[in-house]
């Protein structure tokens, strides 16, 4: 049985102390020592009640449920039963009964059941011994004590005691002076671990937590304090969460061991510090908002990129306040409709929570931020702010240069086709589209060479072009003339490009100067002569 909730433990301690005291009190008063508890006063009965005996034989009428007689039908044993039962109420009653029987000595005694007082009297009348049990308090002539209820109470008290003794949590009670007057087994075991042997425990009980603060009596709730303790067989201090509540003239305390919790919190704190030190050197601004959308973590790059004060960020603003300050500082695009923009913040938060938020922010000063929202555990959201102004500038310059080169190629009268290393057709200018209308359907050098072969007079050039593009021959520029069926002459120029690409270009010429095939086959390393117009 393991109890972990401090409030439940303290409640069980109070119930156990009260129930245990009540049951032990009745057991000691009403039960015979060393035997099964007596039947006396364990059933209901009315007062006064009289018993008449002649020669130790019960002659008066009794009920079947008489509380002072275990077997009212056994009239021979009734005298001994009554003698024993009254002895539980007053220890002098058995001797007085013997004197009454022996020499007719009358008596009056006071018996007790808890706080109630009973009159026990005996006298001799008409040769009979008459014993009377009556109440000393007017109006309280009936007593009801249910045996089953008392048994259940004792059983519950025993169960609670066993539970409190078997729990791993510390339980103890202090009086109004701060002295420990009761503790459970776990507390004494810890005292032994702390250096005092169990067989040398003396009164007063050692106080393990001397620095424990006593809560204010006017304070409400159950204040919990965290304290550590050094033990002989532990390599690290033992941590406890200690709760208390008033109980009578003192206080009840419970201590729950929280080593794992403290270790987890320490590991988490160290992990956050490690992350913070790591993020401190990142050029990307980081802002993490918890499930309440409060800023819980940011790095110096965020301060630099957002230009927001570090002390303001440390005050844990919420997401909406953070974005408002970014807008005021012109560190995000100025919305055309502010109200609509405020309404769109909810969509931004939802997109970040789904991991789908990514935008480019172009700032009024020309800077460009890439902003990414990513979900994290426990409903947290992280925003990454990256300054990509230089990257955007380079991209724009590259695109401008690319557009310039493409426009130059488009303006050329030479029909140009570019193939990649693996033979895929990647570019044809407008002159090539005009010269070879069917090139649009050709996706590879094999299909293009087949198209050219069908459109021109027979020549071994097309196989050589395929080998050149595929890298099977030496890659040096060369040119060769091809004829169309209508008699038009074309100069085909083949040249290597960067990255293993190849250029195949066609120019319509009336007369050109070409290198001889023998010269080209003898040495491809020489620079190919230019094309010269015969006009």
The end-to-end distance, rounded to whole angstroms, is: 109 Å
Discrete helix count: 15
State the strand order across the main sheet. Answer: 3-2-6-5-4
- Spans where pLDDT lies below 50 across 5 or more residues: 21-44, 516-520, 522-535
**In the residues, how many domains can be counted?**
4
Helix content: 25-40%
What class do helices, strands and sheet pairing give? alpha+beta
CATH topology of the largest domain: Beta-Lactamase
Q: What are the main properties of this structure?
A:
535 residues, alpha+beta, Beta-Lactamase, 4 domains, five-stranded antiparallel beta sheet, 15 helices, 22 strands, 36% helix, 24% strand, disordered C terminus
How would you summarize this macromolecular structure in one to three sentences?
Helix content is 36%, strand content 24%.
Describe the fold and architecture.
This protein has 535 residues and is of the alpha+beta class. Helix content is 36%, strand content 24%. Strands 3-2-6-5-4 form a five-stranded antiparallel β-sheet, covered by helices on one side. A five-stranded antiparallel β-sheet has the order 9-8-12-11-10. A hairpin with a 5-residue loop joins β20 and β21.
What is the element layout, followed by pairings?
Blueprint: H1 6-30, E1 45-46, E2 49-54, E3 57-58, H2 78-89, H3 93-103, E4 107-113, E5 116-125, E6 128-135, E7 142-143, H4 147-166, E8 170-174, E9 180-183, H5 185-193, E10 224-229, E11 238-247, E12 250-257, H6 259-279, E13 285-289, E14 295-298, H7 300-306, H8 310-314, H9 319-328, H10 338-354, E15 358-362, E16 368-375, E17 381-387, H11 389-411, E18 415-419, E19 425-428, H12 430-435, H13 445-455, H14 461-470, E20 478-483, E21 489-496, E22 502-508, H15 517-522
Antiparallel strand pairs: 1-7, 2-3, 2-6, 4-5, 5-6, 8-9, 8-12, 10-11, 11-12, 13-14, 13-17, 15-16, 16-17, 18-19, 18-22, 20-21, 21-22
Helix pairs in contact: 1-4, 13-14
């Amino acid at each position: 049985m393991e109890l972990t909730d401090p409030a439940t433990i303290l409640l069980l301690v109070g119930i156990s102390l009260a129930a245990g005291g009540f049951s032990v009190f009745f057991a000691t008063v009403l039960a015979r020592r060393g035997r099964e508890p007596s039947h006396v006063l364990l059933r209901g009965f009315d007062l006064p009640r009289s018993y008449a005996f002649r020669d130790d034989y019960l002659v008066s009428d009794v009920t079947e449920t008489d509380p002072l007689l275990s077997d009212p039908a056994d009239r021979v044993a009734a005298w001994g039963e009554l003698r024993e039962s009254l002895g539980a109420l007053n220890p002098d009653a058995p001797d007085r009964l013997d004197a009454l029987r022996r020499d007719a000595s009358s008596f009056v005694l006071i018996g007790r059941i808890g706080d109630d007082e009973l009159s026990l009297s005996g006298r001799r009348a008409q040769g009979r011994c008459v014993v009377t049990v009556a109440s000393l308090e007017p109006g309280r002539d009936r007593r009801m004590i249910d045996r089953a209820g008392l048994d259940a109470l004792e059983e519950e008290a025993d169960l609670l005691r066993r539970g409190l003794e078997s729990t791993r949590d510390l339980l103890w009670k202090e009086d109004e002076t701060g002295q420990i007057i009761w503790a459970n087994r776990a507390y004494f075991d810890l005292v032994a671990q702390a250096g005092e042997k169990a067989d040398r425990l003396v009164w007063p009980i050692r106080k393990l937590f001397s620095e424990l603060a006593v809560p204010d009596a006017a304070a409400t709730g159950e204040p919990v304090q965290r304290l550590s303790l050094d033990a002989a067989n532990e390599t690290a201090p033992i941590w406890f969460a200690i709760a208390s509540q008033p109980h009578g003239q003192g206080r009840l305390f419970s201590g729950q061991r929280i080593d794992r919790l403290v270790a987890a919190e320490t590991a988490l704190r160290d992990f956050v510090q490690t992350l913070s030190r790591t993020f401190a050197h990142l050029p990307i601004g980081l802002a993490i908002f918890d499930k309440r959308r409060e800023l819980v973590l940011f790095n110096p790059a965020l301060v630099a990129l957002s230009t927001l004060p570090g002390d303001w960020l440390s005050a844990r603003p919420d997401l909406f306040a953070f974005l408002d300050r970014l807008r005021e500082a012109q560190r995000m695009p100025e919305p055309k409709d502010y109200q609509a923009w405020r309404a769109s913040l909810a969509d931004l938060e939802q997109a970040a929570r789904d991991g789908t938020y990514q935008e480019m922010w172009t700032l009024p000063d020309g800077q460009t931020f890439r902003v990414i929202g990513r979900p994290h555990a426990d409903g947290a959201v992280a925003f990454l702010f990256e300054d990509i102004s230089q990257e955007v500038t380079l991209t724009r310059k590259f695109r401008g240069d690319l557009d310039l080169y493409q426009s130059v190629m488009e303006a050329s009268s030479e029909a140009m086709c570019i193939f990649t290393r693996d033979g895929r057709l990647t570019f044809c200018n407008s002159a090539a589209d005009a010269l070879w209308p069917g090139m649009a359907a050709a996706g590879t050098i094999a299909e293009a060479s087949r198209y050219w072969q069908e459109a021109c007079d027979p020549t071994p050039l097309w196989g050589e072009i395929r080998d050149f593009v595929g890298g099977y021959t030496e890659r040096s520029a060369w040119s060769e003339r091809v004829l169309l069926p209508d008699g038009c002459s074309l100069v085909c120029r083949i040249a290597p490009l960067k990255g293993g690409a190849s250029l195949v270009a066609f120019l319509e010429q009336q007369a050109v100067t070409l290198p001889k095939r023998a010269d080209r086959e003898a040495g491809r390393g020489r620079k190919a002569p230019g094309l010269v117009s015969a006009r």
